[in-house]
Amino acid sequence: MKRAGALRQVSDFSDFVSGRRLRELLSQRGPGEAPRHVHTSPDGLHLLLLLRGRPALQPQVLAFQRLGTGAGDLERSWQPPQPPITGLLFLQSPAALTWVLAVVWEQGRTEVWGFVPALGWQLQQTLELCHGARARIVSICSQGSSLVWCEERPPSDAHLDPGRGAFRYCICTRALEVGEQGAQLGAMRIVMHNSPQYQVLASPQHVFLVPTGATFASVSTFLLIWCPREAKVTVVAPSGGFVHSEVLHCSDFKKLVFGSVGLLLSVAPLDIHTCALSSCGGLLLLSTQGTVSLVQPDGTWRHVYDLGGSCLAQGDPVQLKAFGSTLACVLAGVLYLIDLTSGRLIERKLLSTREVHFLESPSREEEIQLLTPSGIYCFSFSSPEEGGRPEPTLVEMVFEEACKYYQRRSLSSSRLTVEKLKKGDMFQAPIALSSILQHSLLRKGTAARGLPETYTKLLSPLSTDLQSYLSLELLKSCIVAASESEVDRCCEELVEQEVSRLLGLDLDRENLGYLNAVFSSFPKASWKAIRGSLQLQQNGDGLLVARATSDIWKKVLGGPVPNWSQQEEMGLNGVVPLFELICGSLHRFKPKWLPSFVELTQQYVGASWTYSTKEGPESGVPLYKRALAVLDRQRHRLASDRELEIELLLCSARPKAVLQAMQLLIRLRRWQRVVEAAEKFSKLSPLLNKEIFTTLLAQFAQHRDLDPYLAALWELCPADLTSSDILSIVLQHLPGSEGDPAPFSAGGAPLTLALLKPLLHKVAQHQCTQDELYADILQGPPFPPPAPPRQHRAGPKASGQQAGACRTPFPGCDPSDAV
Prior knowledge:
Blueprint: E1 5-11, H1 19-27, E2 37-40, E3 46-50, E4 61-65, E5 74-76, E6 85-93, E7 98-105, E8 109-116, E9 120-128, E10 136-143, E11 146-152, H2 162-165, E12 169-179, E13 182-185, E14 189-195, E15 198-202, E16 207-211, E17 223-227, E18 232-237, E19 242-247, H3 253-257, H4 261-266, E20 274-277, E21 283-286, E22 291-295, E23 301-306, E24 318-323, E25 326-331, E26 334-339, E27 345-350, E28 357-359, E29 368-372, E30 375-381, H5 393-408, H6 418-423, H7 429-442, H8 453-480, H9 484-503, H10 509-521, H11 523-534, E31 537-538, E32 544-545, H12 550-557, H13 570-573, H14 578-589, H15 594-608, H16 623-632, H17 640-651, H18 655-667, H19 671-681, H20 686-702, H21 710-714, H22 723-732, H23 753-779
Helix pairs in contact: 5-7, 7-8, 8-9, 9-10, 9-11, 10-11, 11-14, 14-16, 15-17, 16-17, 17-18, 18-19, 20-22
Domain BLOC-2 complex member HPS6 C-terminal: 396-790
Domain BLOC-2 complex member HPS6 N-terminal: 1-378
Region (Disordered): 778-819
C-alpha cells in the first residue's frame, strides 16, 4: 500500500542537448502565450514542447534529446498563413520496431517525422487527413494504428442560425500505418454526422467524446463513449443517472440521441474543467469545484476525491494524470496524490513553482515524474527498508473499528480517536491485530520485520481469516480495473465472499445494515450467495432441502421482527432482518421455493426451540406471517402472489391459517384444490375437521359447484354430527329466494333431499350403529361380574348366627371366627 514519500530530482537538464535553452523556455512565458504542452517520446529519450500563440518566425515545436542519443534538434516554425497546430502524436511502427512523430495542423495537413541517431530528425512524409478545403480539425487522438478526430465542416450558408451551426462537426477515423517504406493512409470513415464539438481522447479500446466550452449548451449534459471494436456508442449523463448503450446503426448524431432527448435536456450540463485518461481505460474528470470523478468504459460514474478550494476558471492551469493506481494532480502549486482504488489522499505537497508538467515513464507505469523549470523530479513512496512506517488501509480500519467498539462500551463522555488509541497502552488488541496485519501484508513483497513472540502465537489461528480478508480486498481492487465483461463475474465473487463473511459474524445493526445494502445493490449476486450459504437445492423427488449449519440457521432466524404496520418504509428508517431479505430474494428469483423454505425454517424452529420460550426466533410472530408481510410490501403485486399467499398459509399447518387459505380458495372457486386441502388438513385435529366440514357444507347449501366432490366431502363428516345438526347448517345457509319466481330458481338446479340422502343415510347408519352398541352394553352382563356364591361346610347351621355376620370370609380366615 502506498504511503507518504518524497520528491527526488533525477535531472537538472544537464543530460539534455541544449539543456540551458530548455530551462529558459520552461521558465519564461511571453504575454499572450497559451499553456505549454510537453510530450515524452515512447523511449523516454526526447522531450517535445508545443508552444502556441508565439509571434511569427519563432519556433512552435521544439524537441530536446538526451546526451548520447544523436545529433540534430527539431525546431519548426511556420509563417502566419499557416493554421495553428492541433496536436502532436507518437505513432508506433510494428514493422520497423520504432516510432514516428506526427504533427497535425487544423486544416488536416500532417507531417510524419522520424528520428535517426546518425542524422537526427528527418521529415518522412506529408499527408492530408481531410478531404474538404474548408475542414478544420479541432481535436485529434490516436488509437493503435488509427487516428480519430473531431472535424468542423463549415456550412456554405453564411446566415445559418446558431442552433444549426452548432452541429456542423463530425467524428472521423482513418488508419495510418507506418512502415519501413513510409506512412500510408487508409480510407476515411465518418463515425458520426451532424455532431456538436467534442474533445476526443482514446484509451486502448474506447474513444471518449467529451463536451468542450464551445459545445452547444443543450447537448453538453452528456458525453459519448465509442467502442470501435463493437461499433457501439454509450450515452452517459451522470447528473441524471442515465446510461444508454446501443449499436451504431446510423451515423447521424441527432438520430442517435433522439430517443432520449427528453431526459437529456432535463439534466444539468456537465461541469468539466480538465479531463485525462486513467490507466485502467477510464476517463478522469475534474470539475470547476475541484471534484475528481472516474468514468468507466461501460458508463459507470464513480466519485474519486474532492480537492476542495475555490472555483476554477476555464484558463486556470491544472495538470491531471494517472500513474497506475495513483492519481496525480497539480492545482495552484499543490501536488495531490490520490489512491484511485480507495479514493484516499496519499500525499499533499506544496511545490515551489506552478509551472509543472507530468511526464510518461517508459520503464515503470507507477513511477511519477514531474517536469519543472529547475529539472525533472521523481516521486518515490517510502518503504519499511527506508525507515518508513507503512500503515495500510486495512490497518487504519482496525483502529477505526476498535474506536467504535470501545466507544460504545465506554462510560466516559470524552471521545476516543484513532490517535489516542495508537498512543495509549490501555488497549492492546488493536495494536496486536494491526501488527499481525502489517506482517501479513508485507510478507509477499519485501522481507517483513519479525513479530513479537506474543503476537506470533496469534498468527496461526488468524492465518485463515487474514488470507480470506486479504483476498477480499484484492478482489475489490481488481473490480476497479476489470473490463466490462469481467465486472459481473467479479461482483458475484465479491458478494459471495462478503455474504459468507457477514454470516460468520454477529449480525448486529451495523452488519445487518451493510448486508441490506449488499442485497439492495447486487440482488442477483446476493441471491446466488445466500443460496450457496444455505445450500438450497431440490432433491430427486423435487422437494427443497437445505444443508445449512445450525449457526447459519440461527443467523437467519435471529434479530427483531420488523413492525410492518408503520407507514414509513423500512429501507429508510431501519434494516430488514435476514429472514425477510431471503424471502424477498426468493420471491424475486425463485418464487416457487418460498413456501418450501418457510416450511423448512419451521421444521428447524420446531427441532430447536419451543414457541413458548423467550429465546425462540419468532417472538410471537409466526414465520408464515413474516413471509406474507414481505409479499405485502412489494410495490408491484403479481398474479402469482395470490397463489404464493395460499401456499404460505397452508404450509404453516396452523388452524387459523388453513381456514384462511380455504376461504381464499373458495373465493377463487377452485373447488378441487379446496377438497384436496380439506382431505389433507382434516386429519390434524377433530376440531379443525369439524370447522372445515361445516364451511364446505355451508358452501354446498348455497350452490352446486361442490356436487362432483360430494363423495369425498361426505367422508369428512365428523362422527359427532347428527342429522338434525346437518339439516340445521343447511337451512341456515340456503340462498334467499325473494327475487326468484316460484316454483323454479334462476340460479341453476335447486338443492334437493336426494343430494343430502347419502350423507343423512351415513349419519343415520352411524347413529344406529352407536345405538346398537349402547343397547348391547346395557343388556349385557354387568361389569365387573358379581361374586360367586359362598361355599358352605357340611353340618348344621349355627343357630345363633347374627344377620350382620360376615358371609364371605377373608382369605386365611376361618368362617367360625365370623362375628
